[in-house]
Every structure is written in structure tokens, then in C-alpha cells.
């Protein structure tokens, strides 16, 4: 049985956003509520969206959509009786929703006509894989603001003090309470000065001079290394596609922005 509450959530979340525009359609009525017709086109659109999500068409689904549309229309009529459609803040929200529908429709069409090829995605995958290198590092660090503080930490390490204890004075909240542990990552995952220094260390070694980055001064220790095994292309293809799509949209916005007159 298709749960009405689940359908209601789906309708409220997305499908009904486009319904106000379709409500202007004077074609065949799907259902009439207090004399107000809800066009067949509204039902057809929602049904198509549900089928695209894998929901099978059935009398139960048809009735569920009908009941939710009736409930929506009843609430809409009550809102209008109370004058909510005349309130400026509500009108602004309605306009914002209308603009969002138009923008999303345009971007969906744009991505269809500027589709990202499999070859482009594989090229991006290879670029990322190559930039990561062949080694993964398990490291820890202490991050401080002043170079002299980093030098003092190195001097204490030289005297045999434990890195995990010295890490408690780090200003990195994500690692200071865990002995400075940064877990496993490729050198490319860090800012360049950090990654470069990490790649020069041998297991058990720590940097003998402070490593300066935009975050401050680091003292870095290498605990372990292992071969880096990146996930296969098919596993991260959806993320690559999403990233490439966003980059394409960003480029479009930049192009439009460069041509626009903005005062």
C-alpha cells in the first residue's frame, strides 16, 4: 500500500512547486473543489514525476494524488480567505519559488544540451588520481601561531618528549585532543607546504624545522605509509558528474556575469 503521508511529503517537497503555474491551464479538470478546478495537467505532471522516481502507476496512487491535491486546494482557499495571498512577505516567497522553478527548468535544459561525456569524466578522474600520487600517509601534527613556539616543540621532541602530549597545545581543534593524529591521506590532500614536507619524511621522523602555511607553523610527524588505492571510476562517477556539472554552471554564470550591466 502506498502511504499517503509519504506521498504528501513528496508533493510538498517538490512536485507541487510547479502546480500554481499549471493551475492557470483552462483545460480538462481533474477534480473540482468548491467550484475551483484543478487541471488534469497538474495531476499528469505529478504522476510523471512519481513514475520517474520509480513509483508504479495504480488506482491507489491516483487516489493518493487526488486526495493530496484536494487537501492542498482546501488549504489554499482558506489561506486566501484569510488574506495571506495579499501579504507582502508571502508574495515575495511566492515570487522566489516561481523564480526557482524557472531557473531549475533552464539549468536542466542547459545540462541536456551541454551534456558531460564519459571521456570528460574519465579525464577528470585520471587527473585527480595522478595528482594524489601513489602513497597514502598517516601523520600527526602540532599547529601553532609563532615560529619560535614550533621550534620549542621540536626541541622538546629532540629531548624525547612524546608527540601526543605536545599536540595538546596545538590550535587545530580537530586533532589536538587525539595526539595530533590526522589519519590517512595523500600528500595532495594538504596545503602544499605541508604535503611537500610530509613527502620527505621517513616513518617515525618529524620535521626538524617548522613548516609554514597559511594556517601557522606546523611540526609534522609521519607514523605510517601505505600504497594509495583510489576508488574505481564507476564508484565515484556520480560525484565526478555532479562536480563537472557544477563547474559547467559556474562557468555559465561567470560568462553571463561578465556580459551583464550591474549597478
Please give the count of helices. 10
Mean pLDDT: 90
Following the backbone from N to C, one meets helices and strands in this order, namely HHEEHHHHEHHEHEEH
Q: Report the radius of gyration as a whole number of Å.
A: 29 Å
What portion of residues is helical?
40-55%
Please describe what this structure looks like.
With 263 residues, the chain is α+β, with helices and mostly antiparallel strands. The chain has 2 domains: 110 residues, no CATH class; 101 residues, Roll (Chitinase A, domain 3). Helix content is 54%, strand content 15%. It has a 4-stranded antiparallel beta sheet. A two-stranded antiparallel ribbon has the order 1-2. Helix 6 packs across helix 10. The longest helix has 27 residues. The protein is elongated, with a radius of gyration of 29 Å. About 6% of the residues have low confidence.
Topology:
Elements: H1 4-13, H2 19-22, E1 29-33, E2 36-39, H3 40-52, H4 59-81, H5 88-113, H6 118-132, E3 135-144, H7 147-158, H8 163-166, E4 181-185, H9 192-200, E5 211-213, E6 216-227, H10 233-259
Antiparallel strand pairs: 1-2, 3-4, 3-6, 5-6
Observed structural traits:
263 residues; Chitinase A, domain 3; single chain; 2 domains; two-stranded antiparallel sheet; 10 helices
Short description:
This protein has 263 residues and is of the alpha+beta class. It has ten helices and six strands; from the N terminus they run ααββααααβααβαββα.
Amino acid at each position: 500500500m502506498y502511504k499517503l503521508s509519504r506521498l504528501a511529503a513528496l508533493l510538498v517537497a517538490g512536485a507541487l512547486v510547479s502546480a500554481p503555474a499549471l493551475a492557470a491551464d483552462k483545460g480538462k479538470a481533474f477534480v473540482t473543489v468548491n467550484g475551483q478546478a484543478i487541471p488534469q495537467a497538474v495531476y499528469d505532471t505529478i504522476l510523471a514525476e512519481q513514475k520517474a522516481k520509480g513509483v508504479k502507476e495504480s488506482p491507489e496512487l491516483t487516489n493518493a494524488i487526488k486526495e493530496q491535491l484536494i487537501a492542498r486546494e482546501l488549504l489554499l482557499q482558506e489561506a486566501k480567505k484569510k488574506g495571506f495571498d495579499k501579504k507582502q512577505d508571502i508574495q515575495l516567497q511566492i515570487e522566489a519559488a516561481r523564480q526557482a522553478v524557472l531557473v531549475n527548468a533552464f539549468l536542466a535544459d542547459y545540462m541536456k544540451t551541454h551534456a558531460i561525456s564519459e571521456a570528460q569524466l574519465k579525464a577528470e578522474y585520471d587527473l585527480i588520481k595522478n595528482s594524489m600520487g601513489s602513497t597514502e600517509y598517516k601523520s600527526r601534527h602540532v599547529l601553532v601561531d609563532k615560529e619560535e613556539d614550533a621550534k620549542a616543540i621540536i626541541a622538546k621532541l629532540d629531548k624525547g618528549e612524546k608527540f601526543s602530549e605536545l599536540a595538546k597545545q596545538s590550535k587545530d581543534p580537530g586533532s589536538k585532543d587525539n595526539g595530533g593524529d590526522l589519519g590517512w591521506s595523500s600528500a595532495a590532500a594538504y596545503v602544499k607546504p605541508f604535503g611537500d614536507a610530509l613527502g620527505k619524511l621517513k616513518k617515525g621522523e618529524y620535521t626538524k624545522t617548522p613548516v609554514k602555511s597559511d594556517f601557522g607553523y606546523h611540526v609534522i610527524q609521519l607514523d605510517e605509509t601505505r600504497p594509495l588505492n583510489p576508488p574505481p571510476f564507476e564508484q565515484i562517477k556520480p560525484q565526478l558528474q555532479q562536480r563537472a556539472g557544477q563547474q559547467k554552471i559556474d562557468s555559465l554564470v561567470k560568462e553571463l556575469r561578465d556580459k551583464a550591466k550591474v549597478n
